[in-house]
UniProtKB/TrEMBL annotation:
<protein>
    <submittedName>
        <fullName>DUF6491 family protein</fullName>
    </submittedName>
</protein>
<feature type="signal peptide">
    <location>
        <begin position="1"/>
        <end position="20"/>
    </location>
</feature>
<dbReference type="Pfam" id="PF20101">
    <property type="entry name" value="DUF6491"/>
</dbReference>
<dbReference type="InterPro" id="IPR045500">
    <property type="entry name" value="DUF6491"/>
</dbReference>
<feature type="compositionally biased region" description="Basic and acidic residues">
    <location>
        <begin position="133"/>
        <end position="143"/>
    </location>
</feature>
<feature type="region of interest" description="Disordered">
    <location>
        <begin position="133"/>
        <end position="153"/>
    </location>
</feature>
<keyword id="KW-0732">Signal</keyword>
Amino acid sequence: MKHLRMFAWLALPMVLGACASLSGRPSEQQRRADYEAAAGPAQTSFRFYNSLWSWEPLGTDLVVVYARPNQAWLLDVPGCIDLPFTNAIGLTSNLHQVSVGFDKVLTGRRDFPCTITRIRPVDVAKLKQAEVAHRTVQEKPRDTATVPPPASR
């Protein structure tokens, strides 16, 4: 019985990992590629008035922040090792302006803020189109040889 319980605990991560891979959610690499494709040219700063509406880490060197549902910015933050593991982030700003080389992404560790090295606006409409393209269903006709005949009355 003890060995069966140990096997169940060892098998649980593999089962959960298999379920996660079947969820249909795009991988981090796919999300990163979609954001990179939807990003515009680099800018030196952007206006930031309120708290963040949303954010998503895309590795240890890239984060997307949403100031509003339709306004997103792709921020390069090289070496920001806490980014994928933190529950909340913050942004520094000066007079409601977030600037390259000066402002930082805060991950909760006061001793390790992440300096923003590049800012790119994200075309949210283009990003949504890419997401829809990934969700397309491939239809194919059913093989009639495997379909049982209709039941007779």
